[in-house]
Design goal:
This protein is mainly α. Helix content is 70%, strand content 0%.
Length: 281
């Protein structure tokens, strides 16, 4: 199966389900913001540079604190850069207890994965806020945070896809993920599913956009009372990330896998743009 076509089909399916069910309309989409980039000062620039240093992110507590601090600093109605820290902070709030509770066969691996995905995001954010060069997928995602005519929902989902589609397979590769980690990998992803209601609530409270219908369709799968929608969308995205990790680790398939990850990310952005044009995000 072509994974790009599978993901695109899933996104289109979500769009049809959400739009067709009449759950999201023009009234639910956020009005264009008049301001989405706060005026910077030397003090605020220095503070952001400090908050996005990855050198101090070594443990889960370090990672959790880094994202929490970024949420406090950025997640305000006049700053689109704060959309993703809301989601990431809520997810990490659930990952921590799951590591401590014995959920994982290899808790050290789970902690290493959490630390690595945070380091990838924070490192790219550091490049962005200090005038450096983020990786291409994050450069694309961060660019939208300065476009005040875009929906904050679209801005958020672009960053979520940069995180899930691109960062995750590389993070899995970086920490030496093997097939023996498969069960733990899916358990780790459940934090995103469990955090969805809180993410939706906090995003609407801060940015005034209602993502409940789309997130329900994609992450929870009950937009039409059918949990299989979750398998079609979120679960397939997770599975592709795991498979791509193995492709990256194999020298014979690494080049093709890198190209596939990039192409799949580009396809996802096209689908998100269509949803935004329809007023669904």
């Amino acid at each position: 199966m072509n994974v790009r076509r599978a993901l695109c089909a899933g996104l289109v399916a979500a769009s049809v389900l959400v739009g067709g069910a009449g759950l999201v309309g023009a009234e639910a989409a956020a009005a264009p913001a008049t301001r989405c980039v706060p005026a910077s000062t030397p003090e605020s620039e220095k503070r952001l540079a400090e908050l996005t240093k990855v050198s101090g992110i070594r443990t889960f507590d370090d990672a959790r604190t880094a994202i929490s601090n970024l949420r406090k600093e950025l997640s305000t109605s006049d700053n689109y850069l704060g959309t993703f820290p809301i989601a990431f902070d809520n997810i990490l709030q659930l990952v921590g207890p799951s590591i401590a509770s014995g959920t994982y066969d290899d808790p050290e691996w789970a902690e290493a994965l959490a630390v690595e995905v945070v380091r990838l995001y924070v490192g790219n954010l550091h490049e962005f806020v200090t005038g450096g060069t983020p990786q291409a997928h994050w450069a694309e995602a961060f660019k939208l945070t300065k476009k005040c005519d875009r929906s904050p929902g679209r801005v958020l989902l672009g960053q979520i896809f940069a995180h899930l589609i691109v960062d995750f397979p590389y993070a899995l590769e970086n920490i030496g993920t093997t097939a023996e980690h498969t069960r733990d990998y899916y358990a780790f992803g459940n934090a995103l599913v469990d955090a969805t209601p809180t993410i939706v609530r906090d995003v609407e409270k801060t940015y005034g956009v209602d993502l409940h219908p789309l997130f329900t369709a994609w992450f929870l799968g009950d937009v039409i009372g059918d949990s299989q929608a979750t398998t079609l969308l979120f679960q397939s995205t997770r599975t592709v990330a795991l498979v791509n990790n193995f492709g990256l680790q194999n020298p014979a398939t690494r080049g093709a896998t890198v190209a596939e990850i990039d192409a799949m990310y580009r396809t996802s952005l096209f689908a998100l743009d269509q949803m935004e044009n329809l007023g669904q995000i």
